[in-house]
């Protein structure tokens, strides 16, 4: 009797260890008697399916009822085919929980047959793979967005150079057409159209995270408070706007202009989702993201973040729409009502500052957008000193070396600076510029494009030129941010980066600012 009791205890202990292992691995076991159509599930299967053992009618048909309706026919067909082929059964499918959540599971089984070849019993396992599928989907989305971003950035950068040429020479034409109303009107119309194209390329570059940027330590609450009037004017009177701002909010390091553009894009989206009115909430809070969260959300690491949440009670979005919302030119709005670049630009803005964006939305249930921005190591916001553009442009007589591989852009910059009184010299690439400097050319300022062929980009030219001429001032220009700036100590030259396309006034003020700056 003692031996039998000991054996029973050992069996019970083994059963408990198996149950614990299944629970920890999220793997349950099942057995289907094909003669009697009775189904036996382990405790873990019931936990995965979130069904009550007392209420579950344990049959094959009851199992199929628990499968997601869109997957049911496929699962049944795959299992029936495995019975005929006498091959092992394996499939993945979804489960819809009572509260609407979706789970992903993997099923495996092996079937045993009678001597006459008829199947009599299937023994299998079911594993909850929801976390794995979630991570794989997030990774696929991230890779797709990265590929689209690279393509968009390349196109927008090349387009930006051409727009720089157009807008620049239109400025010159405007001066010549001042006395004639009709040509002046034509030039103004062409300039306005070009400005719209410039806005479009800036949004593409923002999405691809290649737009030049001017970062500073900012207080998001202060920026949002400064936008309250603009936001109030952007929504309809039927929309109730609320703010819940954490009074102990950390600071972050971003381009405040980009942040404002991103917020206004989200405000406009929320407004359009509530044509009959509703509630719009903006909320800030400090959060600490741990490894458990970031493991399930590829694209962000653990750490301290500011979370800005923007919620509306509008029409919401379907899962199919959510899968595409960050893609450039994707829009659900009627033709002519939007470019489809709003959320793409917001996505690019968040990513380029090593943040994260998450959207929760359901049809007719509204939308919440969470923006996560890294906490700054500095507690006090920066003081921004932006120049004021008056009618009188600052001039100078210093000598400037202009470097650009685009002939028209080189001519344009040369004409701008010559008109402003500067003595100019030009080079078509970095190597030619270095040859001129090594040949004895004396200049006070090097003004160079960043992206140039010939084996030397603008940052490398700046590094070599200042090594030879320590007192030389440097100003770079680019339509996007090159990845080389963080390497080899080149980031110091980014402080004076002038974004393309630029106008004569932009160049005049920035050149004077750089030349007058004390080292």
The tally of helices reads 15
Helical amount: 40-55%
Low-confidence stretches: 334-341, 385-390, 482-488
Q: Span between N and C termini?
A: 94 Å
> What Rg, in angstroms, do the CA atoms define?
32 Å
The CATH architecture of the largest domain can be named as 2-Layer Sandwich
Q: Which fold does the CATH topology of the largest domain refer to?
A: Heat Shock Protein 90
Q: What's the CATH H-level superfamily name of the largest domain? A: Histidine kinase-like ATPase, C-terminal domain
- Number-wise, the strands total 17
Q: How would you classify the quaternary structure?
A: single chain
Strand order of the largest sheet: 2-1-5-4-3
Backbone structural class: alpha/beta
Task: Give the gist of this structure.
It is built from 15 helices and 17 strands. The chain is an alpha/beta fold and 519 residues long.
List the helices and strands and how they pair.
Layout: H1 2-25, E1 27-33, E2 38-41, H2 43-49, H3 60-66, H4 69-85, E3 89-96, E4 102-113, E5 119-128, H5 130-176, H6 181-208, E6 216-218, H7 220-234, E7 239-245, E8 252-254, H8 256-273, E9 278-289, H9 291-296, E10 303-312, H10 319-322, H11 342-352, E11 356-362, E12 366-374, E13 399-403, H12 407-419, E14 423-427, H13 430-438, E15 445-449, H14 458-468, E16 473-478, E17 498-499, H15 504-516
Parallel strand pairs: 7-9, 13-14, 13-15, 15-16, 16-17
Antiparallel strand pairs: 1-2, 1-5, 3-4, 4-5, 6-8, 9-10, 10-12, 11-12
């Amino acid at each position: 009797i003692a031996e039998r009791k000991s054996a029973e205890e050992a069996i019970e202990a083994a059963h408990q260890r198996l149950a614990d292992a299944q629970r920890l691995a999220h793997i349950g076991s099942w057995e289907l008697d094909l003669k009697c159509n009775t189904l036996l599930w382990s405790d873990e299967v019931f936990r995965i399916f979130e069904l009550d053992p007392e209420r579950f009618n344990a049959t094959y048909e009851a199992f199929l009822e628990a499968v997601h309706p869109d997957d049911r026919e496929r699962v049944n067909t795959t299992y029936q085919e495995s019975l005929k082929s006498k091959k092992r059964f394996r499939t993945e499918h979804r489960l819809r929980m009572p509260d609407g959540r979706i789970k992903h599971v993997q099923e495996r089984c092996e079937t045993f047959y009678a001597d006459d070849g008829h199947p009599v019993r299937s023994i299998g396992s079911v594993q909850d793979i929801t976390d794995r599928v979630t991570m794989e989907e997030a990774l696929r989305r991230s890779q797709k967005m990265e590929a689209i971003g690279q393509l968009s950035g390349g196109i927008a950068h090349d387009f930006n150079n051409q727009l720089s040429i157009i807008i620049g020479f239109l400025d010159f034409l405007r001066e010549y057409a001042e006395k004639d109303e009709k040509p002046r009107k034509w030039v103004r119309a062409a300039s306005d159209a070009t400005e719209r194209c410039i806005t479009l390329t800036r949004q593409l570059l923002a999405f691809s995270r290649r737009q030049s940027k001017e970062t500073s330590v900012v207080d998001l609450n202060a920026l949002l408070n400064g936008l309250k009037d603009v936001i109030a004017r952007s929504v309809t009177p039927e929309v109730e706007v609320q703010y819940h701002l954490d009074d102990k909010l950390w600071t972050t390091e971003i381009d405040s202009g980009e942040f404002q553009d991103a917020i206004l894009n989200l405000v406009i989206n929320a407004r359009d989702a509530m044509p009959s009115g509703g509630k719009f909430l903006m909320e800030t809070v400090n959060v600490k993201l741990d490894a458990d969260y970031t493991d399930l959300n590829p694209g962000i690491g653990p750490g301290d973040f500011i979370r800005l949440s923007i919620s509306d009670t509008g029409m919401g979005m379907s899962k199919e729409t959510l899968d595409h919302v960050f893609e450039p030119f994707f829009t659900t709005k009627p033709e002519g009502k939007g470019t489809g670049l709003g959320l793409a630009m917001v996505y690019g803005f968040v990513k380029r500052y090593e943040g994260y964006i998450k959207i929760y939305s359901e049809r007719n249930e509204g939308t919440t957008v969470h923006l996560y921005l890294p906490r700054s190591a500095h507690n006090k916001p920066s003081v921004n000193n932006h120049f004021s553009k008056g009618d009188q442009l600052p001039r100078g007589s210093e000598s400037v070396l202009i470097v650009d591989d685009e002939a028209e852009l080189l001519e344009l910059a040369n004409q701008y600076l010559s008109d402003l009184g500067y003595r100019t010299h030009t080079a078509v690439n970095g190597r030619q510029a270095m040859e001129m400097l090594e040949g004895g050319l004396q200049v006070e300022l090097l003004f160079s494009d960043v992206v140039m062929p010939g084996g030397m980009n603008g940052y490398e030219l700046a590094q070599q030129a200042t090594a030879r001429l320590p007192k030389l001032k440097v100003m770079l220009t680019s339509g996007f941010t090159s990845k080389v700036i963080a390497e080899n100590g080149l980031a110091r030259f980014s402080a004076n980066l002038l974004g393309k396309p630029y106008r004569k006034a932009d160049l005049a003020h920035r050149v004077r600012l750089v030349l007058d700056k004390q080292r």
